[in-house]
Amino acid sequence: MSDEVENGSAKDDKQEHSRKSLHKMGLLTCLAIGIHNFPEGIATFVATLSSPSLGAALAIAIAMHNIPEGMCVAMPVYFAATGSKLKALWWSFLSGISEPIGALLGWLIFKELFGSVVYGVLFGLVAGMMVYISLMELLPTAYKYSQDKTCHLIPVSLIIGMAIMASSVLLFLY
User: Fold this and answer.
1) Which of 6, 35, 52, 63: CA 20 to 30 A from 69?
2) CA 128, CA 43: separation in Å to the nearest integer?
3) Cβ atoms within 10 Å, residue 142
4) pLDDT tens digits for 102-143?
């Protein structure tokens, strides 16, 4: 009986550690995506100033990828926390609201500096942040929580996601 209690306790400790780890990853993803969205809002605003059609295309592409970003925040919070959809939605909202705030603050702070160098730097920062989040946080977590049967779907999904983003930008630019 003692061994069963110890094994059960060890299993509970492992599940609790996994839950805390997943919750931490969700909150870190929220923070990282929020930081990523801030210059993304500036970049969208700057692109719109440069060319309204480019700004509209960028806004649509960003709106499309904000859906999986919100899911990347909401899912770990939902599964690791209390199972509360409201908490998951709240953290997703917080990560996304930084985008319009970034656009507004960017305009207030940088409105006199907008030019091709600022555009390049902002777009590079936004892209670099998302690549880092994807490669260092999201993909390893996907592998960690996937089942053996579905592991092969992760790189396939990655490639499909990249193709959708690339095609959405190309379709809206031309």
Assistant:
1) 52
2) 13
3) 18
4) 888 877 876 777 677 777 777 787 778 778 877 887 788 788
Work out the angle at residue 111's Cα, subtended by the Cα atoms of residues 109 and 117, and round it to the nearest 5 degrees. 100
The C-alpha atoms of residue 157 and residue 139 are separated, in whole angstroms, by 10
Question: What whole-number distance in Å separates Cα of residue 27 and Cα of residue 29?
Answer: 5
Contact 38, 102 (CB under 8 A): yes
What's the CA gap between 161 and 115, in Å, rounded?
30
The CA-based diameter of the chain, rounded to the nearest angstrom, is: 73
Q: Is 79 within 8 Å of 72 (Cβ atoms)?
A: no
CA distances from 137 to 42, 43, 130, 133, 141 (A): 24, 24, 10, 5, 6
Most trustworthy range by pLDDT among 81-85, 156-160, 167-171: 156-160
Question: b or e along 71-108 (b: 16 or more beta carbons within 10 Å of the residue's beta carbon)?
Answer: ebbbbbbbebbeeeeeebeebbeebbebbeebbeebee
- Alpha-carbon span 104 to 159, nearest angstrom: 33
